[in-house]
Design goal:
The chain is an alpha/beta fold. The protein has helices at about 1-30, 45-55, 80-85, 100-110, 145-165, 170-195, 210-220, 235-245, 265-270, 295-310; strands at about 40, 60-65, 90, 120, 205-210, 220-225, 255, 275-280. The strands form 3 sheets. Strands 2-1-3-4 form a 4-stranded parallel β-sheet, with helices on both faces. The radius of gyration is 24 Å and the shape is globular. The site of zinc ion (ZN) has 7 residues, from loops.
């Protein structure tokens, strides 16, 4: 009898031990201790800036791919791994952006013992995806270049921050509301801006085909040398194809993205005698303190420079 009681006590102690262990784990992942800031990691500078606009100084923020660097292909550094391990929330673009180098981001998530939809979230979750024309099964990642999608990203980010850090929920929501209103205003301006330019001039020529979402939103036609940065860049076939498209139009200027090599576009310019108007921003923000150093500022720069380059 004594033996049975001892065993029973043991079993009960074990069960409650497991219960308390699981319960405390649950609490750890759902609620922050008082005074602890939510630790957030983003894969690139555009997401970093969106998260910063919502979380401001109430979060700790770290971004993996540095400004001016291509987020398609990346080799995570030791600091990237340690920051990801320590993070409460990780945002990536999704839509086939962070897939170069055999899926560098997926590998990082695995190494850091994080889980998709638990602590890793795709900011593009609610976007209606467009697909690559060279490979229709693959999504085109550049959804943020349409401000209406950028607003969707901000809404997803806000929801996650509010869920993970409830005590600051109203602070995050108020920041998001203000930020979204500013983005919406720019979006509305851009939607009618290009319609005054003759259609034969409204061809947006870039190195990477990053402007599908932008073009659909703002009434221009996209043309590019290569479709996505994970492909070969500037092959003779790609050059011939873009030159043929340009020659069918009255396009006044070409553009080159800040995060790719300008070499191929310079060749296109030489072949056609059409000048490169300016750099524009696609996959990365500019260095802090310069034009294009926030998501709003990069979009404003793109909208204004593309307009000027196509109109004159
Ligand atoms: Zn890209």
């Amino acid at each position: 009898m004594k033996k049975i009681i001892i065993t029973l006590v043991g079993v009960i102690a074990m069960i409650s031990g497991v219960y308390f262990f699981l319960h405390s784990r649950e609490n750890n992942s759902q609620e922050l201790a008082d005074g602890d800031k939510l630790r957030v990691v983003t894969t690139n500078s555009i997401l970093e800036d969106m998260v910063h606009n919502v979380g401001k100084d109430r979060i700790e923020l770290y971004s993996i791919v540095k400004r001016g660097t291509d987020p398609h292909e990346y080799e995570p550094q030791p600091t990237d791994v340690s920051e990801t391990v320590e993070a409460n929330v990780i945002f990536h673009n999704g839509l086939n952006l962070e897939t170069g180098g055999n899926g560098w981001f997926k590998k990082l998530v695995k190494t850091s013992h994080k889980s998709f939809d638990e602590d890793v979230f795709s900011a593009s979750k609610t976007v209606v995806p467009k697909h690559l024309t060279t490979n229709v099964n693959e999504e085109d990642p550049h959804a943020w270049l349409d401000l209406a999608n950028g607003i969707k990203y901000v809404q997803v980010i806000t929801k996650v921050l509010k869920d993970k850090d409830k005590k600051n929920a109203s602070f995050y929501q108020a920041n998001a509301d203000k930020y979204i209103a500013k983005l919406e205003k720019l979006h509305k301006t851009a939607q009618s801006k290009y319609l005054g330019i003759p259609e034969s001039q409204r061809l947006l020529v870039t190195s990477e085909g990053a402007f599908k979402y932008f073009s659909a939103a703002y009434h221009v036609t996209p043309a590019y040398i290569w479709e996505i940065n994970t492909e070969a860049q500037g092959t003779p076939e790609q050059m011939q194809s873009v030159l043929a498209k340009i020659r069918k139009t009255d396009v006044k200027h070409l553009f080159v993205e800040s995060s790719v090599s300008p070499k191929s576009m310079e060749k296109v310019s030489k072949e056609t005698g059409i000048g490169i108007y300016s750099k524009i921003f696609t996959d990365s923000l500019a260095k802090k303190g310069t034009d294009g150093d926030t998501y709003y500022s990069m979009m404003k720069w793109n909208i204004d420079h593309i307009y000027d380059g196509l109109a004159k």
